Amino acid sequence: MKGCAMKAATAVMLPVLLLTSPTFATETEQFIYSTGGGAQAIVGLLLVALFGLLIAEVCHKTLAAAAVVGTMLLISAATPMKIMDFASAIRAVDWNVIFLLGSMMAIVSILVETRVFDWLNGRMVRWARGRPSALANIIIAATALLSAFADNVTTVLFLAPVVSKAAKSLRLSVWALAMPMVMAANIGGTATLIGDPPNVIVGVASGLSFMDFIFFLAVPIIVMVVALCFLAAFWYRDDLSSAHASEAVPERVELRDPNVLAWTLCMVGLTFLGFFTHSLTQLPVGVIAFAGAALAMLGRHAILRRQLGAKRADHVFAHSFEHGIEWLTLGFFIFLFMVISAAEHTGLIASAAAWLNDVVETVSTSLGLGLRAKLLMAGLLILVFSAIVSAVVDNIPYTIAAVTIVRVLVSGFATELEETGMDGSEVQLMSNVLWWSLALGACLGGNGTLIGASANVTTVGLLEKDGHHMPFIEFLKFGVPVTAMTVLIAAVYLTCYIYIGPVRTNVIGAAALALLAALAIVRYIVRRPQRNMSMASAE
After folding, report:
1. What does the alpha-carbon distance between residue 46 and residue 58 come to, in Å, rounded to a whole number?
2. Which first-to-last residue range defines the signal peptide (predicted)?
C-alpha cells in the first residue's frame, strides 16, 4: 500500500517538477551544477529511493543515506549530470543542529548513569497509589513533560520498563498504558526547540528561539495532552476498569554518584538558561548546548578522578563518549543534509516551492480568498501534508527537505504582508505561522503509524521482548484517531493565530488553561476527604 502511494505521488509530482524546472546551470567555485529537468529527475528519484529504503528498513538508515550520497557523487564524477559537489555538500551540513543533538545526548547519558530517571519513574508509580486511571494520567503527563526536554527515544527507553512492571502489577494490558505513553512522547516533544528533531531543524532554519517555541507551541500542546488523557481513558476504559491494584510496594531506587548528579543538573540549568536568553546573547543553540555538555563531562571527570583515580575516570569518560552519543544518528543527519544540498543546488527544491506556491495562488484566486485566508490555507496545507508524510516516512529527512520549501513561501508571504502596510515585527509573527505548521505537522504525524516515529518503533520493540506483541493494524486503530485529534487542535490553533493574533491567542489560551488547572485543584481538594473515607471504610 505504501509503495503504491509513493509511486502514485511520484507519477503526479515528477512531471510537474520537470515542466517547471529551468534549464540552466549554477556554479559553485569550480563545480557547475546541472539544473535541468534531467538532473532534477535523478535527484528526485534518489530521494524517493532513500525514503523507500527507510520505509522498507532493508538496511540501517545511516547506511541508506550514505549509499545515496555515494551514488550522487559517482553520478557526478562519471556522467555529464553534475548533481553533487563534495565540498559544497560538506558546507551544507548544519553543524549547529549536529552539535545541539550530540551535546544533549551527552548530557542525557550522564544523567542516565546517575539513575535519576529510574528514581523519577519509581516516584511516579508511588504517586498513583495503585489507581489505574491515575497512573495512566501520570504516565501521560510525565512522558509529555520529559519529552519536551529530552529526546523522545530516551524518554520511552526509561518509561517503557516502568509501564511494563506497572501493568503487570495491576494485571492490566500493557498497551493500555504504553500506547498513550508513546503518543504523549511525540506530542510533548513538539513543545520545545529540543524536544523533537524536526523542531531542531525548523528552529535553526527559521531563526526561532527556544523561548519562541515555548511561547507559541506550549499552549496547544498542553491542550493536546489533556485531550489525550480523556481519549485514552475512553479508549481503554474496559482495561482500566477491570484492573486489580497490587499491594506490592515499588522497589525503591537509590541515586548513584550524587555529586555528579548535582553538578550535571547545575550545568543543565545553565544550558537551559542559555536557551532562554538565546535571543539576547545571539549565541547559536549548538554552541550553548556544546558548552553545557563539555562542562558537564569535565566536572564529572574531575569528581570521578578524585573518587576513583585517573585511569578509572578516563575509562568512564571514554565509555560514555563512545556509547552515550548516538553517532549513527548524527551521521544520518550529516548525510541527509548533503542529499538535500543536491536537491537545492539542482533547483529541485525551488521547483517544488514554485509548484506549491502556484497551487496556493490558483486556489486562492478561484475562491476569491483574502491574504489572511490565503496564508491560513498555505499553513493548513503544510500541516496536513506534513502529518500524512510523517506518518509514513521518518519525519527527519522530510523536515530537512521541507524547510527549504517553507523558507521560500515565508519570504513570499512576508513581501505580500509588508505591502499591506504591516510593520516588520507583525509581518514576522504572521509569516512564522508556516514554520509552526511544519513543526506541528512533522511532529504530530509521527503518531499515525508504528513506523511514523523512532519512539514508536523503540517502545514496540522493547515490549515485544517481554512478550507483548503489537500488530501494525492495531497500532493504527489508536494512532490514527490521536493524530487526527491533535492535527485538528493544531488547525484550530493556527486559525486563531492568524485571525485573532499570535500573542493574543496564546495569552487567552494560557489563561484558560490556568483557570482549568485551578478548578481541577479545587475539585481534588474537595473530593479528597470523601475518597479517604471510602478507602477507610473499605479496609
Report:
1. 16
2. 1-25
